[in-house]
Write a structure and sequence with these properties.
The structure holds two protein chains of two kinds.
Chain A lengths: L1 H7 L10 H23 L5 H19 L1 H11 L4 H51 L1
Helix pairs in contact in A: 2-3, 3-4, 4-5
Chain B lengths: L2 E7 L6 H11 L4 E6 L6 H7 L3 E4 L6 H14 L4 E4 L8 H12 L5 E5 L17 H18 L11 E4 H7 L8 H11 L4 E5 L14 H18 L11
Parallel strand pairs in B: 1-2, 1-4, 2-3, 5-7
Antiparallel strand pairs in B: 4-6, 5-6
Helix pairs in contact in B: 3-6, 5-7, 5-8, 7-8
Classes of the chains: A mainly alpha, B alpha/beta.
């Protein structure tokens, strides 16, 4: 029973989270995931780009439900202050996400260029056919 | 040999007709294609009035994308040779014809027209007088490209080139949009293609000023070095296999 209690408990010496913050964080996480679902529903966000955000929302929810998780992760990282651990993880995740978008952007830029070239050549071919006709 | 001469043009309505006429006179057997890189002026209309095919990109994509369009067309329409020159009138078509001769003799796969007639001459000799920042850039690129390719290049950013089908196959798939001229040379050498520089006569630009300010030049040079460094570690491509 002790590990579970540790996970659930917000004892002062492990993680300094009040019930209030935990409820707020949980509500925010749920609201965030609802927003993602709504964006997908209205075709503003494609499913394939939504998974990562959904995982982020679930992570937030998990952190709110089990503050002990954070402590566990901080211990694994060898960081005494759980806040520092939290911020480092979030920062790294955002960095990875931003890089991911740059990669996607580069791919799409290459696709747009090829599309423009294909269209330009198609027009030139048409011009050639019209002039020889 | 079926030859395509293509001319990348971006807002060159003033000079494009003269360049087309020059090519027509000096390289009579060649077909022509003007690649209009999303000009906002009358470049496309001027070129069509001259009776050449025009591939108009729907928006400005940069020189690399425009050149690649030409290589793609040459490859697909089964041209044996292709060449390109600038649309601003700096490149005499007669010199392009000399580049093509090297290909006809099969002495190289890719031929570059170099404005520096003597490979050992300092930039700025001859009748061509570049600005200081361009001189620095030229020297730096010469040094690093020579280091990367172990081959002597003098005019690394020359936009006057002639190529055969092996080069078309490579460049129509792999042509950096950002650093087209230098990276393409490195790529061609890395892929085992024979690249040769031929000294050519070039003219002063008729009008307009260079886009290079000192700060831009510094950034340009820095970017070039990074591009060359990364280029050394690129995987090899299959297009050029004989």
């Amino acid at each position: 029973m002790r590990p579970l209690a540790l996970l659930l408990a917000a004892t002062p010496d492990s993680v300094r989270l009040t019930s209030q913050t935990r409820i707020l964080a949980a509500v925010l996480a749920v609201a965030f995931m609802l927003l993602i679902l709504d964006l997908i529903r209205r075709d503003r966000l494609q499913e394939r780009y939504s998974v990562i955000w959904f995982v982020a929302g679930l992570g937030m929810l998990a952190g709110a439900a089990f503050p002990g998780l954070l402590k566990l992760v901080a211990d694994l990282m060898g960081v005494r202050d759980t806040n520092v651990a939290l911020f480092s993880i979030v920062l790294l995740l955002l960095l990875g996400l931003a890089l991911n978008f740059s990669v996607i952007m580069s791919r799409q830029a290459a696709q747009i260029t090829r599309l423009a070239q294909e269209r330009a050549l198609e027009k030139a071919r048409q011009q050639g056919e019209e002039e020889s006709a | 040999m079926r030859t395509l001469v293509f001319i990348p043009a971006w807002n060159e309505q003033a000079s494009i007709a003269a360049v087309i006429a020059d090519v027509r006179e000096e390289i009579p057997g060649a077909d022509m294609l003007v690649v209009d890189d999303g000009s906002t002026d009358e470049t496309t209309a001027r070129a069509r009035e001259c009776g050449v095919l025009v591939a108009t990109l729907p928006f400005n994509q940069g020189l690399g994308a425009a050149l690649q369009t030409g290589y793609l067309h040459a490859l697909r329409e089964d041209y044996e040779l292709c060449a390109h020159l600038d649309a601003d009138g700096q490149h005499p078509a007669a010199e392009v014809g000399r580049l093509l001769e090297v290909l006809v003799a099969d002495r190289a796969d890719l031929v570059i027209g170099s404005r520096y007639s003597d490979p050992d001459a300092e930039a700025g000799s001859d009748d061509y007088k570049p600005t200081l920042s361009r001189r620095i850039g030229t020297s730096v690129f010469r040094f690093f490209l020579t280091l990367a390719t172990r081959q002597r290049f003098t005019d690394t950013t020359s936009g006057m080139r002639a190529a055969n089908r092996r080069v078309m196959a490579l460049f129509s798939e792999h042509y950096s949009p950002d650093f087209a001229e230098i990276e393409s040379l490195q790529l061609a050498v890395r892929e085992g293609l024979r690249v040769e520089e031929v000294p050519v006569r070039m003219l002063e630009r008729a009008g307009g000023t260079s886009f290079l300010t000192p700060v831009r030049s510094a950034f340009f040079i820095f970017k070039g070095i990074v591009v060359l460094l990364v280029g050394q570690f690129r995987p090899h491509h299959a297009e050029t296999d004989r």
